[in-house]
């Protein structure tokens, strides 16, 4: 006796190839909008091609970085605010390239979801394309994976991969040039960027505040809109400063781990960063997180950027020039301290941050 069983399809298993094709159709204009010298192909092939010679490099060194946006993506999922999470994805990668003096050339994304919604996917990729334009790099390709059973319906995750290049003699940090007395400048952040969001979400839960209610620290926006503020992309201002010979010796992207974990990554063992905390004017979101979560100052400084998203190290004689160039490019520049001889900790602090 033959068992009567219907024929199964990939769609029956939860994967919709037609939806994938529709998403590709939707995102093509956004991808095309990011094209730059060296990258002028169309998506749809098996790999992207970039021409370093066409991009104008003579003796380039390639620099690569990859990252994600962590649990900040959960706020996008829970609120339906998908438009800017792609900017965060690009920012977390390209900001890591520029700290090595590298110009971001191209970007690739990985978007994995339990159920592919072409409109949602388009919104995410449109944000990625916007981030690429802010960084001056091409969105060269990517991968969309529909994986029912691995992700719950409605859930998704993102990963980004960026490749940049620098002329060999412009690579950072210039470790041998770092010395006691060098100035430490800070570039203001736009908020929490893409770090510490597991703690952020826990604090929101403790507060009882609704994501669609006005933010307690900014009544002009909902809490979700304030918390999803995208990571600032520092690439173009810093490239301008590097190319105008502003004397930049080292850069540090302040991500997870805050000042304590990130600044030592660019310092020699005999040097320490001495930071004047009262110089920082943290955005109000940090004061709210600290108060509602009863978060200690040390924990704030190790978890969040607290208002400074990038560190710039220059000689004292170059500090005014570097500051002027960066300010002309739209950055808020804060004199934060100096390099000192290391006696114990690689980062030391004076005073306290005035959280409000």
Structural class: alpha+beta
Order of helices and strands: HEHHEHEEEHEEHHEHEHHEHEE
Strand content: 15-25%
The biggest beta sheet reads: 6 strands, mixed
Q: State mean pLDDT (0 to 100 scale).
A: 93
Arrangement of strands in the largest sheet? 8-10-5-11-9-12
Question: What gap, in angstroms, lies between the N and C termini?
Answer: 77 Å
Helix content class: 25-40%
**Total of helices:** 11
Global Rg: 22 Å
Shape: globular
Total beta strand runs: 12
Low-confidence stretches: none
What characteristics describe this protein?
globular, 6-stranded mixed beta sheet, 4-stranded mixed beta sheet, alpha+beta, 356 residues
Structural account:
This protein has 356 residues and is an alpha+beta fold. Helices cover 32% and strands 24% of the residues. It is built from eleven helices and twelve strands. The protein has helices at 17-32, 72-79, 85-98, 118-135, 197-207, 223-227, 235-243, 258-262, 284-293, 297-303, 319-328; strands at 60-67, 103-113, 138-146, 156-167, 183-188, 214-215, 218-222, 248-253, 271-276, 308-314, 333-341, 347-350. It has a six-stranded mixed beta sheet with strand order 8-10-5-11-9-12. Strands 1-4-2-3 form a four-stranded mixed beta sheet, covered by helices on one side. Helix 1 (17-32) runs parallel beside helix 4 (118-135) and helix 3 runs parallel beside helix 4 (118-135). The chain is globular and about 75 Å long. The protein starts with 16 loop residues before the first helix and ends in a 6-residue tail after the last strand.
């Amino acid at each position: 006796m033959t068992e009567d069983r219907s024929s199964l399809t990939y769609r029956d298993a939860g994967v919709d190839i037609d939806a994938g094709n529709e998403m590709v159709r939707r995102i093509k204009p956004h991808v095309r909008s990011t094209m730059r010298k060296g990258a002028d192909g169309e998506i749809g092939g098996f790999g992207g091609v970039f021409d370093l010679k066409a991009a104008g490099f003579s003796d380039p060194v390639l620099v690569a970085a990859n990252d994600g946006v962590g649990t900040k993506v959960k706020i996008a999922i829970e609120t339906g605010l998908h438009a800017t999470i792609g900017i965060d994805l690009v920012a977390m990668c390209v900001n890591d390239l520029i700290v090595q003096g590298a110009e971001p050339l191209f970007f690739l994304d990985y978007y994995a979801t339990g159920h592919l919604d072409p409109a949602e996917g388009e919104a995410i990729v449109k944000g990625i394309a916007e981030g690429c334009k802010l960084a001056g790099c091409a969105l060269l390709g990517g991968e969309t994976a529909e994986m029912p059973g691995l992700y719950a319906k409605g859930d998704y995750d993102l990963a980004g991969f960026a490749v940049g290049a620098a002329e060999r003699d412009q690579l950072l940090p210039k470790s041998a040039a770092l010395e006691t007395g060098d100035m430490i400048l800070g570039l203001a952040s736009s908020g929490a960027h893409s770090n510490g969001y597991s703690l952020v979400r826990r604090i929101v839960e403790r507060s009882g505040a609704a994501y669609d209610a006005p933010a307690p620290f900014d009544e002009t926006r909902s809490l979700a809109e304030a918390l999803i503020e995208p990571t600032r992309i520092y690439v173009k201002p810093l490239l301008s400063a590097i190319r105008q010979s502003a004397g930049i010796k080292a850069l540090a992207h302040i991500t997870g781990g805050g000042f304590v974990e990130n600044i030592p990554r660019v310092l020699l063992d005999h040097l320490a960063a001495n930071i004047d905390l009262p110089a920082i004017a943290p955005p109000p979101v940090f004061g709210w997180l600290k108060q509602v979560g009863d978060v200690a100052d040390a924990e704030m400084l190790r978890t969040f950027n607290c208002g400074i998203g990038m560190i710039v190290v220059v000689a004292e004689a170059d500090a005014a020039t570097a500051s002027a160039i960066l300010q002309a490019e739209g950055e808020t520049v804060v004199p934060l301290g100096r390099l000192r001889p290391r006696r114990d900790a690689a980062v030391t602090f004076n005073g306290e941050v005035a959280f409000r």
